[in-house]
Design brief:
This protein is mainly β. The chain has a single domain (2-192), classed as Porin, CATH 2.40.160.20. It has one helix at residues 2-21, and strands at 32-33, 41-49, 62-69, 83-92, 99-111, 114-125, 129-131, 138-140, 145-156, 161-171, 182-192. The strands form two sheets. The protein has an eight-stranded antiparallel barrel. The chain is elongated, with a radius of gyration of 17 Å. It comes from Hoeflea prorocentri. This is Acyloxyacyl hydrolase. GO terms for molecular function: hydrolase activity.
């Protein structure tokens, strides 16, 4: 599963890089922050559980990812019109940790159909500690209450429909005794309405 998700992420990155590398300089003069800030959006996809650059990658499995983004309130216009969001990573694994998260999401369209996103907020995990009975690996998040960071790269297929790759990171920022972190990398589709 991780191999397939890695191939999909590399393919998406190659598509984005190839398009960016061949774009005229004028395309980048129109970076637009908050292009769809006043719309609702629903996202749904899947990713690799416990996979990412800051995670020990001791556990195998999949996460089902879903998010709802609300329109940005007008009083947030001065900081780039971030949209409030709520989401979840539901783990399908022998040793799952499921997470519910919320915060603010910023998007910048670097081309009319290509965007990057950054989210930050808080999260709650349904388990603080899990152990793989086969390998003996233990993951101790240090707390059920965590910070959430997310990065994404997406392509607008239409103004309503998009696809993106995402990276979720959950940790307590070393505010507890343990700070192993939990991550997921995957892909998803979204619909704006």
């Amino acid at each position: 599963m991780r191999f397939l998700l890695g191939i999909a992420a590399l393919g998406m990155a190659q598509l984005c890089w190839g398009t960016v590398a061949h774009a005229s300089d004028g395309d980048f003069n129109r970076i637009e922050i908050g292009k769809y800030a006043k719309t609702w959006e629903a996202r749904f996809g899947a990713g690799a559980f416990d996979t990412g650059p800051a995670s020990p990658n001791d556990f195998d499995g999949t996460v089902i990812n879903g998010e709802i983004l609300a329109p940005s309130p007008y009083f947030l216009d001065a900081i780039g019109s971030p949209r409030p969001y709520v989401g979840t990573d539901i783990a399908i694994s022998d040793n799952p940790i499921n997470v519910v998260y919320t915060g603010l999401n910023w998007q910048a369209h670097v081309m009319p159909w290509l965007y990057v996103g950054l989210s930050g907020g808080g999260a709650w995990a349904d388990s603080r500690v899990t152990t793989d009975t086969t390998t003996g690996a233990t993951k101790d998040l240090g707390s059920n209450w965590l910070f959430h960071l997310q990065a994404s790269v997406g392509i607008d297929i239409t103004p309503e429909l998009m696809i993106e790759v995402f990276y979720n990171h959950f940790s307590n920022a070393s505010l507890a005794d343990f700070n192993v972190g939990l991550e997921a990398v995957g892909g998803r589709m979204g619909y704006r309405f």
